[in-house]
Amino acid sequence: MKTVVHLLRHGEVDNPAGILYGRLPGYVLSDLGQQMAVVAAEWFADRDVTALVSSPLERAQQTARPLAEQLGLPVDTDDRLIEGDNHFEGSRFGVGDGALRHPRNWWVLRNPFRPSWGEPYSEMAARMLAALHTAREAAAGHEAVCVSHQLPIWTLRSHLSGRRLWHDPRQRECALASVTSFHFDGDQLRGIEYAEPAAHLIGLSPDAGTAKGA
Predict the structure, then answer these.
(1) What is the pLDDT of residues 79-128, one digit of tens each?
(2) Number of continuous H segments (helices) and E segments (strands) in the chain
(3) What sign does the CA torsion over 70, 73, 75, 81 have?
(4) Cα(65)–Cα(85) distance, integer angstroms
(5) What is the 3-state secondary structure (H, E, C) of 140-201?
């Protein structure tokens, strides 16, 4: 029995202040992000999607909405698809803003392999893997879409590809509104594919090359 589970990253978020928003409430899709969600939904138009699941965060729920309307499916919520926890949530934090050089942050940044500033990569991979298999079982013989966030999607892909989990955020292949597809034969993973349905819109986003819009 062949099943495909697609992990769809949400579209661009309205975040003019450049905050690392993480799990904070109130961060919703920008107008461009809503266009990305529509384009992503169109990408799935001819696919055999029978299950639709989303992270509980607003931006993910909004990204799922056009797909739900198109397919006539309810949007189930799975808390395991949520963004990773992060010590710097709610602040401006990134390469070039001086945060990495400030002594008050050094203890938090002491271990990039775990990482020490947030949810351990191993725990994130475990919860995402469990959510992946729940979706696979729900759509057995068909296809499922799970709307999630950049870091959890990339961490799961790295785990299932046999790569190390610690990494440079700038090297993630998980663009806004991108689709990472996991192909199963029964319960055995047979392949992983990646697509960017909204690639023509990504260049319009100032957030395209950052990890803030996770």
Answers:
(1) 999 999 988 888 876 555 556 666 666 677 778 888 988 999 999 999 99
(2) 5, 6
(3) negative
(4) 25
(5) CCCEEEEEECHHHHHHHHHHHHCCCCCCCHHHCCCCCCCEEEEEEECCEEEEEEEECCCHHH
- For 160, phi and psi rounded to 5 degrees? -75, -15
3-state secondary structure of 135: helix
- What pLDDT, in 10s, does the model give residues 46-87? 999 999 999 999 999 999 999 999 999 999 999 999 999 988
Distance CA 69, CA 165 (A): 35
Amino acid at residue number 63 = T
Residue 59 in contact with residue 124, Cβ under 8 Å?
A: no
129 vs 155: CA distance, rounded Å = 10
* Domains of the chain and CATH, by start: 2-202 (3.40.50.1240)
Cα–Cα distances (Å) from 187 to 4, 141, 156, 195, in that order, read 11, 11, 16, 23
Q: Considering only the C-alpha atoms of the chain, give the largest distance between any 2 of them, rounded to a whole number of Å.
A: 54
